[in-house]
Amino acid sequence: MKVRILRQASPFSKPYWQEFSYEKKDNQTVAGMLDELNYKDDLKDINGDPAPRIQWECSCMQGMCGACAMVINNRPALACETFLRDLKKDVITLEPLRKFPTVADLLVDRGVIQENLKKANSFIGEYAGSDPKEYPHQYLAAKCLKCGLCLEVCPNYKGGENFYGAAFANDCYLIATRSRQGADIRKAYDKHFAAGCSKSLSCMDVCPMEIPTLSSIAKLNRG
Predict the structure, then answer these.
(1) pLDDT at 223 (0 to 100)
(2) I need a surface site. Which of 72, 133, 152, 178 has the fewest CB within 10 A?
(3) Mind spelling out the 3-state secondary structure of the chain?
(4) 10 phi and psi, to 5 degrees?
(5) CB 186 within 8 A of CB 172
(6) pLDDT > 70: what percent of the chain?
């Protein structure tokens, strides 16, 4: 099979496509494939030319950290949860997430997610306790990996200038239901999410943790 990767040496260099040949293993993940390609000291592209190691990010390799988020065959996904057997094409195309600054190759800077939380003063502050009825949904909302897949597919997210996206909405719900400053976080939610969300719910389609963001939205909209 052919692996086609959009590469970029640094944030300021021009991106280019490079292709590699790989013997497909059905039980291998995209993350495992990248690991295996990088294992070679003399990595070469499909033409036999020397190639630098492919830069990408990973940590747990078990779908629990979100570090390996990338665009796989035009669909945002976690590399460690995407099996080669599920990719029907003979060519696998890998690209970095497009809505974040590229650091190198498939590695991007997702720091804007945390920066937006800080700008909106999104923290619990004085803990107020929680209604036990909210526990099940709080558990689900807290599973967010901050991987950025939801922002990648969101038609309203343009880089976090004012609309902060689904990850922010879920955090707002968690804070509003546990903090004495809940009224303040609801104002931030109205400004940085509710005012810009078109309810396409594409965020839920790609969420690796299957977070029911629509429920978080509904609970916050009810006040």
Answers:
(1) 67
(2) 133
(3) CEEEEEECCCCCCCCEEEEEECCCCCCCEHHHHHHHHHHCCCCECCCCCECCCCCCCCCCCCCCCCCCEEEECCEEEEHHHCEHHHCCCCEEEEECCCCCCEEECCEECCHHHHHHHHHCCCCCCCECCCCHHHHHHHHHHCCCCCCCHHHHHCCCCCCCCCCCCHHHHHHHHHHHCCECCHHHHHHHHHHHHHCCCCCCCHHHHHCCCCCCHHHHHHHHHCC
(4) -155, 170
(5) yes
(6) 100
